[in-house]
Specification:
Layout lengths: L1 H25 L4 E4 L2 E6 L6 H12 L2 H12 L2 H7 L1 H9 L6 H7 L4 H16 L8 H13 L13 H15 L9 E9 L5 E10 L2 E6 L3 E3 L3 H7 L8 H4 L9 E8 L9 H5 L10 E3 L5 E6 H4 L1 H4 L7 E6 L3 H4 L3 H15 L8 E9 L24 E3 L12 H17 L1 H17 L7 E4 L4
Parallel strand pairs: 1-8, 5-13, 6-12
Antiparallel strand pairs: 1-2, 3-4, 4-5, 7-10, 7-11, 8-9, 9-10
Helix pairs in contact: 2-7, 4-5, 4-8, 5-8, 6-8
Bound molecules: flavin-adenine dinucleotide.
């Protein structure tokens, strides 16, 4: 018993010290880097974008632009969100048809503020600039950051996402009896109509190389990206406006570049330290800049050292090129040349360091483009087909296309499925009846209740 108590108090201690550590993490500043201020500006503790705004404004903007920024923000629904979050969100949803630039300029903000400050934020949030992102998207996220303090953390994983993000999620699901069938692609949604004309999904045809399998379940959730769902939906379903709307959504191209150096690129204070390879050194943070084609970047060897720090090597810069369009047609060598030149312009003290390894990943359609007027086309997780549900961050949820958004969409889909419990049991009978009428039996192997 005493042993148990000791363990409990040790757990509580650990918990409280980890809470303290978490708090300490939150007080880590975000850094904005600009060619105008090549030493890099570190700002005090913004745990949310609103604070970033003020901190960044101090360093990047002239007093006139700062004053106009303050006026625009004071007139924004974000202020209302502090006292009436639901009312503010309603106001913000009404701003879906205009761009953030149009909204901001109409409230007295300046073009200079957009270029120096809001564009990098928009690029980081949605991979497009303020002229192309909807006011709804930007203001929603600011008001959520302002009001949901538990959700406004800016953190870097300590290692690779595979180990530190999806790894624990996968373990949780497997511990609860779920199964993953990785590299199995879903090729077709199989469906039929009941005698009263209702569409019912009867299975998902999946394949991996030459293997084929039909997955059967009581409820089907398809959690694709935008190009994936467009390919998968049966063309006949487009007769329904609900499904046809999805084809109005498009993805934004993005290019991610990684550059490994033989020294520490972001070590700005001590030239000698930047040239040694015994210890990591430099800006251990997520970095923003308005002065390069990558607005958002980080030295992963510092921020996520578990997997990215390599003894005897230096910085591993990861730069997300936004907009990605101008880079899509370039060769990898050309992209690396351009990006490394821009790195040097931001960090002149890295002159002489060499790129010893690099990687370029181009994604033709990544996040869905949160342009003005697009929100009404996002589908709800509950669809007109009663045993078929959607998830994925492009579906309707109040976060932007992000990991939080994807998570929220999954929670909403699961809530709908729980609500539909009884109905799903009835549908199972309907599907069985429809299937028994079918004379042609497929030869494929079936697998029930799996995750693909
Ligand atoms: C370079 C980059 C950096 C990012 N950084 C961040 C960040 O720091 N923080 C953050 O919150 N978000 C970030 N995001 C956004 C985040 O990755 C996405 O918002 C999130 O992954 C969306 O999750 P999802 O599950 O909706 O879609 P996805 O993660 O796109 O998953 C959909 C999956 O469905 C698969 N698929 C499609 N069709 C089929 C099919 N027929 N059969 C089987 N599988 C199929 C796709 O291959 C894909 O793996 C970043 C995105 C990019 C591109």
């Amino acid at each position: 018993m005493q042993k148990e108590k000791r363990k409990q108090s040790k757990d509580e201690e650990d918990d409280s010290s980890s809470r303290k550590r978490r708090k300490a993490d939150l007080s880590k500043p975000v850094s904005f880097i600009s060619t105008a201020e090549p030493t890099g500006a570190r700002f005090p503790s913004p745990s949310n974008c609103i604070l970033i705004h003020f901190s960044h404004g101090d360093a990047q903007l002239q007093p006139y632009d700062k004053a106009r920024n303050a006026v625009a923000l004071a007139l924004s629904p974000v202020v209302r969100a502090l006292i009436d979050p639901d009312g503010a969100l309603r106001d913000i949803r009404d701003l879906d048809s205009i761009s953030f630039s149009d909204w901001f300029l109409s409230k007295g903000g300046t073009r200079m503020s957009i270029q120096r400050m809001w564009d990098p934020v928009a690029y980081a949030l949605g991979f497009i600039d303020c002229d192309n992102i909807s006011a709804r998207c930007m203001l929603t996220i600011f008001s959520l950051f302002a009001t949901k303090t538990e959700a406004s953390l800016l953190r870097m994983l300590k290692g690779s996402p595979d180990v530190y993000l999806s790894g624990p999620i996968r373990k949780y699901i497997e511990d609860k009896g779920g199964r993953f069938h990785l590299r199995w692609g879903c090729r077709q949604i199989l469906y039929d109509r009941s005698p009263d004309g209702e569409i019912l999904v009867t299975g998902l045809a999946t394949s991996k190389a030459t293997d084929k399998k039909v997955v059967k379940a009581d409820a089907y959730v398809v959690a694709c990206d935008v190009p994936g769902i467009k390919r998968l939906l049966p063309s006949q379903w487009r007769e329904s406006k609900f499904f046809d709307n999805i084809y109005e959504l498009v993805g934004v191209p993005v290019v991610t570049v990684q550059l490994r150096y033989n020294g520490w690129v972001t070590e700005l204070q001590d030239l000698e330290r930047s040239r040694q390879l015994r210890q990591a050194s430099g800006l251990d943070n997520l970095l923003y800049t308005p002065d390069a084609d990558f607005s958002c970047f980080a030295d992963l060897a510092l921020t996520s050292p578990e997997d990215y720090y390599i003894e005897g090597q230096g910085s591993l810069l990861q730069c997300v090129l936004t907009p990605g369009d101008p880079y899509m047609s370039l060769t990898n060598d050309k992209i690396i040349e351009r990006v490394s030149k821009q790195v040097l312009a931001l960090f002149p003290s890295s002159q002489g360091l060499e790129v010893i390894w690099s990687s370029v990943v181009k994604i033709a359609q990544s996040l869905y483009r949160e342009g003005p007027g697009k929100d009404p086309f996002r589908p709800d997780q509950k669809t007109p087909v009663k045993n078929f549900f959607l998830a994925g961050s492009y579906t309707k949820q109040d976060y932007i296309d992000s990991m939080e958004g994807a998570t929220l969409s999954g929670r909403q889909a699961s809530a709908y499925i729980c609500d539909a419990g009884e109905e799903l049991v009835a549908l199972r009978k309907k599907v069985a009846a429809v299937e028994s009428q079918e004379s042609a039996k497929s030869n494929t192997v079936t697998d029930e209740l799996s995750l693909v």
